[in-house]
Structure formats: C-alpha cells, structure tokens
Amino acid sequence: MQPKKLLMATSMSALVYLLGCAGTQVAGDVQAGRNALYTGRPRDAVSYLIRAAEADPEYKTPYRFPVGVFTYLGRAYYETGRDEEARKALEKAVSLDKDDPLAHLYLGLTLLRTGDRDRGRKEIEGGLKGIHETLEYIASNNYHGIFWDPARMIRSDIERTLAGKLDDSQLAVAAQRIGSEVEEEIYKARRDESEGHRGGGDSGGN
Fold it and tell me: How far from chain centre, in Å, is Cα 159?
C-alpha cells in the first residue's frame, strides 16, 4: 500500500475507534443516569445525563421502547424540582422526536406544576396515549410481545386514568406512577427477553 493510502486508512481506523469509544461513553452515561433515576437519585442522574446530552443530543436507548437522552434529563430535572431546566430539556426532547411519549408525559407534568394547566393536561394525556399505543404495538409482535406488559397492567392503568375525571393533582400522581411503571417495564422486559421468562420456552432473545 502506498504511504499516502496507508496514512488515510490509519486515520480512518482511528476515527472509527474514537467514534466507537464516544458512543460507548454516551451509552454508559445514559445507563448510569437511568440507574440513578431508578434508585431515587435524580441529582446524580442529572450529572450523567448532561454529559451524555452534550456528547450526543440525538441519542436514544436502543430498546424496543426507545427513550431520548433529553427525555431522561428532563425527568431528572423534574424530579429535583428544577422546573425551568426540565421544561427546556423536555421541549428539546419533543422537538427531536415528537413521538417520544415519555417526553410528552414529563413535559406535561412540568407544565402542570408550573401553572400551565391546559397545555400540561394535554401533554400528559397525549403522553399516556402514546405509551399505550407503543405497548400495544410491541405486544402485537408474536416474537417479543409476550415480554412487554403481559398482564396489561400498565395499559389498564392508562385506560382508567384517561377515562377518569381526575383533578390536576390526581392526574399528576397517576402520570408519575405510570412513568415509573414504564421504566420498570423496560428493565423487566429486556431481562426477561434475554432469559426467556414470561412466556416460557425459547421465545426470548434480545
């Protein structure tokens, strides 16, 4: 190989390696942020998720129920009471992916808490409908669907919430509960797919 071509090939290999390392770092920070949220440490989550969002604003978790990094960052801000930062992060999440239902859900919660009642309720209800539709779509897959909300507990909770005449406080409590249920379901479903649980046999696989 000619020296010039060898140099170009070496440079490309180095670039691919660096990009791979950067992607691994972002995924690790998002996972650390998710773990912090899951274990009730939203302040720790903010630090991890800020770094991930700065490195790759369009990063989404590579799961059957994908969630954007700004959605997780907005949720972390929301759970620490930093409503202005939460609103900005969640509006960014929605602008990047209008079909991210958790972004709409937590944006609605943030707006509701800061007094924007009409838009807040609209965003929450849209987020709940989006979660329901996403779970229905995943559950319709004969191969993977058995692992996701198999007893329809989350979807039933959403249906009751949307059908109920809830005041703002009741709606906020229900929305936060469902948001937590969805995150827990992501953990459970991914685990059970890899282990072949919830349906028995060899139906799993991730």
Answer: 21
- Give the pLDDT score at 11: 45
| Residues paired with residue 60 on neighbouring β-strands, in sequence order | 68
Q: Is residue 114 part of a domain?
A: yes
Maximal CA-CA distance, the chain: 74
pTM (2 d.p.): 0.82
Structural domain tally of the chain? 1
Spatial CB neighbours of 195, under 8 Å, sequence gap ≥ 6: 204
Residue 8 lies in a domain: no
Show the CA angle centred on residue 97, arms to residues 29 and 31, nearest 5°.
Answer: 15
**Rounded Cα–Cα distance for residues 161 and 49 (Å):** 30
Q: At 58, which amino acid appears?
A: E
Residue keyed to tokens 């773990």: 35
